[in-house]
Amino acid sequence: MRGLVRGQAALLLAVGGLYLLATVLAGTFLNVYLWKSRPDFAMIGWFTVAQQMAVGLSFWLGGKWVKQHNKMNALRLGIAVSGFFYLLVLWLRGDAVHYIWPLGLILGLAIGFYWLAFNIVFFEITDAGNRDFYNGWMGLLGSLTGIVGPWVSGWMISYWQGGRGYRIVFILSLCIYGVAAVLSFGLHKRPRGGAYLWLEPWRELSRRDSPWRPAAAALLFQGIREGVFSFLIGLLVYIAAREESKLGQFALLTSAVSLISYYTAGKWFKPRARLGGMLAGSLLLAAFVLPLLWKVNYTTLLIMGIGTSLCLPLYMLPMVSTSFDLMGVSEESAGKRVELVVLRELSLMSGRLLGLLVFIAVLSVNQSPQTITLLMLLLGAAPLGSWLMLRRLLH
Q: Which residue spans traverse the membrane (predicted)?
């Protein structure tokens, strides 16, 4: 039985790795593709807002399907809709910037359905004893795909000038999504749960003694940083270098460092080290934004990117593992794992939306490079809030 679980975990990691590869191949340059049609930070910001709104909605609405029906179909739907999104982008070409909201909503639905199902299955085939190990492997796969994907797509886009390179990259991503969908049929159908409790996330947060109150606050702080950094760094690298190949090179170097750091963390980072490790990671994530105060160019962005990749596992592994551990503290909480995954994602989404709205509001007043850098420093310090919220749970 243990070997069967390990086999399913390995297959889930393979599906997740292919999904990540397809996503980074096309997704790394998606915002650059839109930027080249209309250079507007607010436009990219609203595109990301639409995604996050759809992610939160798909988690909440899809929770019933995942708990009471076949969660594997939700995972496959997420992969299929991801492919459909890039088909739309291929069809619209330069006109894609005129459909930012519907495109963002479609991509958000795809992301939401996929990660909702993936997170539930991940919880079911791991436990508190091996969760850091599998989280480390997932981070390792993310780093490997981050090395290969952006470098290959950056080279292709630079080699085939104009829109042809982008079209080839988007088509290649479609094919990989297809392979991931086929491979997912090897994952066993998971047992169904009981009735889906629509308001459980709110009920859980209303309980004064609930450990999910500090956990949700910590996730909100995580989202504040993620919402903006997820698209801004790549755009700044492209703006500074003016070459897609340079963005691919940036992703290759930072992902190579991330591969080493996630491998090391997955092997040596134990639950007892979460408190100190998370504080160190939070401080370092803010510190590595400081070089941008001197000058925003490819070199300083690379210093920040490499530093972030080096220390991110110290922050992320406690964040991910702690929230998943809370789902398994009792038989009752394990039975509500779908609702708790929804709570986790809604907390992240709230933080991401808050960070994005602050970003858009500030840039509507002042778009100077100094303003953007100071804003990055402010948002980049948000992980310290996560540590403050979680410190009692990390003992």
A: 42-62, 74-93, 99-125, 137-160, 166-187, 215-241, 247-265, 277-294, 300-317, 346-365, 371-390
